[in-house]
Amino acid sequence: MHLRVDVDVQKLETKKLRKGKNKAEKDLDSLKTNYKKLRLSMRITGLGK
Description:
Residues 14-41 form a coiled coil. It is a single chain. The chain is an all-alpha fold. 90% of the residues lie in helices and 0% in strands. The protein has one helix at residues 2-45. It is rod-shaped.
């Protein structure tokens, strides 16, 4: 019985870590997109020189 509880806790922790990783990857993709847009805007306005 005690071992079963440990396994369940470990599964929940793994699931939580996966969700965190997915969120971090989405945030990183969003930052990359925003950076590309910013660089393009700077190039268009001539601020990148």
